[in-house]
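During the second half of the funding period, the structural biology subgroup turned its attention to how the target accommodates small molecules. The most pressing case was zinc ion, which had performed well in the primary screen but for which no bound structure existed. We therefore specified the complex as follows and requested a full 3D prediction, including the ligand pose.
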Amino acid sequence: MNSNLEIHMFPCRSDNYGFLVHEPQNGLTACIDTPDARVILAELERKGWTLTHIFNTHHHDDHAGGNLDVKRATGCTIIGNGNDAKRIPGIDVTVTDGDSFDFGGHTVQVLETPGHTVGHIVYYIPDQSLAFVGDTLFAMGCGRLFEGSPAQMWDSLSRIRRWPDDTRIYCAHEYTLANGRFALSVDAGNEALKSRMDEVAEKRRNNQPTVPTTMKLERETNPFLRADVPEFVASIGMQGAAPVDVFAETRRRKDDF
Ligand code: ZN
Ligand code: FE
């Protein structure tokens, strides 16, 4: 029996989260992205963990900007998308869609999820029911489409949406309150969304994180996962439209919200 992974989460920059994933038996520790090298190194020190890996989700500065400093300080191995290797500083090991690798006895599955950037990947660890989704999926939201098309992002989210209900979703930003306000504007009749918003508002008032979320909660309340759900489609007045068009319109409205 493998030991469970311990997740240590901490705020970084203005609204990012940093994550350390520790496997005690083999003494492995990965950080998910490198939003702030100084903070990550301090958290490692505080936990007494030695960093062995960085799992990068995408090339943006608040995700890969600390790579070289963290690698210099720890000698860790950097894993990232082979199809975006030129934009991932210090990349050592390349992975692509459908790959999996071992992390201390746990299988880590890699999915390419183009949309926010064309080279975005997510990391899914089924035996621990958890996933690190970077800027692809947020609590009640999704990443802005800087590089990919709505069709690409809808496909990416549709694949993520197949994960089991109890999957804990670690997204990279605390955007939940603003996302939820938008979600209410397009899905006002959604009771699950309304009660979730009450909980989220209460948490944020007490300065508590709303991450991780779960796949079940997202399927019920995230407008960007509901482009093919009749109640949602009716709610934004697009009955009969293709899901990809409903998704694109929802994303457009969020950009202007
Ligand atoms: Zn980003
Ligand atoms: Fe980001």
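Two results from this model are relevant to the next phase. The domain at 6-256 is CATH 3.60.15.10 (Metallo-beta-lactamase; Chain A). Residues 58, 60, 63, 116, 135 surround zinc ion (ligand 1) (CB under 6 Å).
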